[in-house]
Design goal:
single chain; 626 residues; mainly alpha; two-stranded antiparallel sheet; 31 helices; 7 strands; elongated; disordered N terminus
Amino acid sequence: MAQVEKRGGLLRKSSASKKPLKEKVVLMYDEIFMTEDPSKCSPRFWEELFLMKVNLEYLEGKLESLDGEELMKIKDNINCLFQHCIQALGEEHPIRVVNALQNSFSSLQTLCALIRGVHQKNKSTSGFDIINMLMGFDKAELCMKNLMESLDSLLCAEGSESLKSLCLKLLLCLVTVTDNISQNTILEYVMINSIFEAILQILSHPPSRREHGYDAVVLLALLVNYRKYESVNPYIVKLSIVDDEATLNGMGLVIAQALSEYNRQYKDKEEEHQSGFFSALTNMVGSMFIADAHEKISVQTNEAILLALYEAVHLNRNFITVLAQSHPEMGLVTTPVSPAPTTPATPLGTTPPSSDVISSVELPLDADVQTSNLLITFLKYSSIVMQDTKDEHRLHSGKLCLIILTCIAEDQYANAFLHDDNMNFRVNLHRMPMRHRKKAADKNLPCRPLVCAVLDLMVEFIVTHMMKEFPMDLYVRCIQVVHKLLCYQKKCRVRLHYTWRELWSVLRLSTNAGQWKEAASKVTHALVNIRAIINHFNPKIESYAAVNHISQLSEEQVLEVVRANYDTLTLKLQDGLDQYERYSEQHKEAAFFKELVRSISTNVRRNLAFHTLSQEVLLKEFSTIS
């Protein structure tokens, strides 16, 4: 008997004399792409279609093969298919539960294929044209209401995780159907028929969060950015008032794991380079190529999850508490992880970490394991991203990291735990390889309040970016973060044990010359009090050492000299140094976020994978549930 080979919807017999046969579902697709209504000759056509295994490859290929005019000719059938998908999705079969699952699965996959296919043909048009092509203007409101209600029910119900995953992917597909999500008119229906509570339920429920947390967080971040400056966005309003601890902690865990996964990948690549041939070669020639080596170990940034962190910090003051929630140091806790399938590289890190890795975050604390929190994980991530700002994506990530730190530095509660002497951590920031300094050993890191790590990060950026093409925007943001922290310390009379000399040194070095010489001279002129202090005390200290025949004074001796001569110090009174302009996204950062969200949206759409979900997995889930 001749063997049958399946390829692209065709059943090919091994005998060359036989004409290839098509799968039944492919024949049904072909009928839909005719101008006639396929249900005229076969009343049970739509019911039978959703009991078939979806052939995404063929359906998307068929849509892609049509030009705009040909697609318009079958618009009625496309509308009909879209509406029957929604109808099948909402149907309940109390007796034939397997059929209900099958219908829902097929409907969701078909909807994803339709939305992606129609988008490919309408790239240059508005969301209105896509709505008309998919469902027709006259039925759009009812269609979308029914669709959103069905998706909400599936996401909130106990049951198939595969269906929930497909629901989230369909929603991501809907949200990213246009490059500029604010021009995606379909989202008006998503605003009216909110799924916000369903997203929160996923984040607050550990099993659902492990499976779907990443997609849920990215979806929420994108929905929050729909027309955020032009109209009232209900997702912004609702996110700003969330106060449920389990939900906020769940969101924080998802973000922390994604950032931690990035940090782990970077560390693995760094160790790989240090132990390889290239490392041996650079050591032989005195690290001449150390900058090139650094560029080679860069890891793709994750701007989607960073945007989610920004929106949570910026919009919800209750989320600030999540930044300090302790959990085991990710990467020290090891669990067996099954090999993950190879996925294409994603420019903005839109691929979620595996569920096995996410589950390790929620292990109980161990006294022998170094504890961490979301803020520490974020600071480590920032220290990697901000090393190299020549790449556009890393530049945007670095800028967003500094904006997040700006929001944190302005928050009263955040400052309270940043400066808390009872919350001390070892924060191992990544440092750019430089010829004139050695890499600090991890074991030598002191335990300090978290504000010290923030200041270290700012100093590290400034000292490693003294270049001709001076990144003035990022540099100013670093200074603003430092200024806001100093304002809090003055206001609350906090005396921080920190090596300030490094900070003053980099500020002095950055005011020498270069592209921004005029701005640098203004800063230098403003340091009149710093110069007055140095000029006043240096001679006194030298005189004290000479009189007492001491080559090197101790800290106590220097302090004695300062106290004895403090009354004769004359400083210029400067008003308003403890005042600053608060961060405002709409007035200063709107253009940046518009381009950032466009870039994230494009990459989310490009990397959505529907082929990884199979009906066999669905049936296996059903047997487990039943």
